Amino acid sequence: MTGPEAFQQHRKLLFAVAYRILGSAADAEDAVQDAWLKWSAADRSQVADPKAYLARIVSNLALERLRSARHQRETYVGPWLPEPILATGDGADAVTGAESVSMAMLVVLETLSPLERAVFVLKDVFGFSHAEIAEAVDRTEAAVRQAAHRAREHVRARRPRFPADRGKQREVTERFLAAATGGDVNTLMDLLSPDVTLWTDGGGKVRQALRPVAGAETVAAWFAAIGTVTYQGVAPADMVAELTGINGGPGLVFRGPDRVIATVTFDFDADGRITSLHNVANPDKLGAVARALGVPGPVA
What is the pTM of this model? Predict the structure, then answer.
């Protein structure tokens, strides 16, 4: 197998690893491109396991990017949310359809240290050995085991518990969409947990709530207004809302005549009620969704 063939064979895996470490599709693609440059320049005659070698390269590149991005995220305007990925499009089958890529999980991973996040992704999501990870992140096996244990305990304590089944999630999302576009506050209240929280990410580029919006009544009123107000210069009559797969679960995409405006994803409890919503409207984070839908990129 040639160098390019070996790289292409593992490209989707590399993107999946980088995306989970970074929470950004654009940064993950950049990391994969940088990995290709390093792979092209490497003495591949000494590489016994291309998959492990490439995973090591992309993990290091993603770690570097994550560390440099930490300050930007600390000074971000409003809540910082991961960049959404549709269940269609380049590399989607490698990153969607799994709990490990849900918005809820990516938000939890954001609270880990960069090392813990990389170790958790490589060990618990992709099943690399402690020895392989130690080489990838330039740590001892003992340090990797400790980081994996800390990360696992942290994630276990914070990840959503006992979510509803996928069929129920889709049914609730469909009802939510119909109620939101129809201004049906009562149905929205029925679908939301009393202590539901809405997180909105405009990144200072578009108007969004700078703090989490809490409570079923407030969140229901927020979404019931969709069909009555102009948003980002798009009148209600010109806005299209559609249900699609986002980050491994049902979600909503809002589009204007010429661009993607926002995405919304949901977390559910065991009864199917919505416990939290993640609304990404920062134009810089909607490029992957726009490409997957075949529409022009959002205007920043």
Answer: 0.89
**Look-up: residue for tokens 């919006």?**
213
DSSP letters of 183-243?
Answer: T-HHHHHHHEEEEEEEEEE-TTTS---SS-EESHHHHHHHHHTTTTS-BTTB-GGG-EEEE
Domains of the chain in start order, with CATH, are 3-75+111-158 (1.20.140.160), 166-293 (3.10.450.50)
How far apart CA 87 and CA 289 sit, in angstroms, is 9
Q: Distance between CA atoms of 163 and 165, rounded to whole angstroms?
A: 7
Q: Which amino acid is at 66?
A: L
b or e along 249-288 (b: 16 or more beta carbons within 10 Å of the residue's beta carbon)? bbbbbbbbeebbbbbbbbbbbeebbbbbbbbbbbbebbbb
Q: Is 264 helix (H, G, I), strand (E, B) or coil?
A: strand
**Which residues, 6+ apart, have CB-to-CB distance to 74 below 8 Å?**
none
For 3-45, the pLDDT digits (tens) are 788 899 999 999 999 999 999 999 999 999 999 999 998 888 8
**Distance separating alpha carbons of residues 48 and 175, to the nearest angstrom:** 52
- Angstrom CA distances, 173 to 180, 211, 254, stand at 10, 24, 14
- Tokens encoding 3: 């160098």
Distance from C-alpha of 69 to C-alpha of 114, rounded to nearest angstrom:
10
C-alpha triplet 21, 22, 27: angle, nearest 5° = 135
Q: How far apart are CA 196 and CA 75, in angstroms?
A: 26
